[in-house]
UniProtKB/TrEMBL annotation:
Regions of compositional bias (Basic residues) in chain numbering: 200-217
InterPro entries reported in the protein's UniProt record: YgfB-like, YgfB-like_sf
Disordered, as annotated region: 194-217
Top-level taxonomic group: Bacteria
Protein name from the UniProt record: YecA family protein
NCBIfam families registered for this protein in UniProt: ygfB_yecA
Amino acid sequence: MSDTPLPEPLLDDDQLDRLDDFLASERVSEDALDLIGTHGFLVALAVSPREVPPATWVAELFQGEPSFTDDGERESILGLLEQLRHNAIVALEQGLLPELPFELSLDDISPEETPIGDWCAGFMEGVFLDEPGWFEEDEEAAATLLLPFMALSGLFDDEPDMAEFTTDTARLEGLVRQLPELVLDLYLHYRVPPETPKPMPRKKKPAGRRKGSKRQP
């Protein structure tokens, strides 16, 4: 049997259905993220090296204020979104892999035509909210770690440097299977500080004659 733990669900099926129904309703802007994109977006916020204020990410996710029926519905929906983000942090902090809301296979379909592409595009939208936070510490390492998400998102297909990468279907298929592990790698890179060596205790100097003391005969 494999020792690899099963991916950790970030919300249960009923909670995901509740969010899906709301995000797909006419009370939400057509430009808002759907459930799959929202999932990727909130996982990115869980990984993000700096906290993004809720007012900022809620406005970005919905692209405007939804038409909530009442304060109760508003509290319920926003609570589910925050719960998903928080559960992702808790799982990653424990070294668990997040369960993603799709099969980890492209089946010879272009990523941007699948939920995988939608999820990675949502993830990158979360990155775009605070690009300096993701890139200012070590731009090269950040670009390397984010490359799989960029390639699968379909948002960068027009960039010459990405063309060779995105046309390699075998490589993309491998990245899809590794997505949960890649999320954990990012979290460990940004959120877990490197261990610092413990300070060595200072050696005691041999006790010398105190100033002003007299040598005994």
